[in-house]
Structure prediction request, 293 residues.
Amino acid sequence: MELIKNPYAIHDEQGESELTPLSFEIYSYIEKNQRARANDSNVLRGSAATLCVRRRWYQGKGYAGTPLAPRKIINFAQGDITEKNLAYYVKEGCVGPGKTYKRVTFGKVLGETEISGRIIPVYGQLESVFRVAPGKEVLCHFDGIGQRHDDSYDLLEFKSASNYGFQKFVKNEPLDYLNQAHAYMMTEMCKHFNVKKVNFVFLRKETSHIFSREYDYDHEIAKQVTIDYLLSIARDIPLRPYGPDSKGKLPWQCSYCPYVTKCWDAKKVYRNNKPQYYVDLPTGELNNLDHLY
Ligand code: SF4
Prediction:
């Protein structure tokens, strides 16, 4: 079989150098299909709350960023599918007398699918908005709301995580998703139910271990989330929230940012197949990057 040079490898640190004709067709389809999303400059979305505020500003102002490799889009879709399966398990396994919840509400049933011989419903997400300024609303889609037996309500969020992300969650290390959850907890729907807590249910992608953790609504986080949305649509570019370490290395947020070369005069190197960006420090000591390879 004749293999095809992978045109998408340029944007993918783990991209295959060659593709079979069929895998090329799949990637091509995804690449064309994602263009509409890539041009989306509406950054007033709940899911944006985890992202660097300056990155959001670039996107909102219509700057072109490095496109996502098709393989990564498949990866996100796989996560969505996993999370829908998790919603099904929570609905079936965690509701009723003696269980965590009296009732759970997800979005409307979008259809059914067969998994391992079982026909299961596929739930959509709930939709609501929160207002950051007059005429400026953040559109939020979240997984569900759970009613406890004491009639308090939780925001429910299902996440599929890498080994690394899962371990961090288990160890209760700082969680970017908390910003997103606070955007959701400020929506009209969550306010209606007086939601004051989020229950995250994580599934480890490689092994399917499950771990959940609850976090209370935190006014300080909510305030910062609101400020960041306002900064992301401001006239002037926000300051960078991150900077290089003492060796000039930018943090991972910048390494995976589609605007890194707009934001910094940075040089890219690969370590363990992962991209890392370095900037010259004022001393100029990093002009020669050979030692990093
Ligand atoms: S490169 Fe870093 S600081 Fe700049 S926009 Fe991206 S994440 Fe933010």
Summary: Residues 70-93 form the longest helix (24 residues).
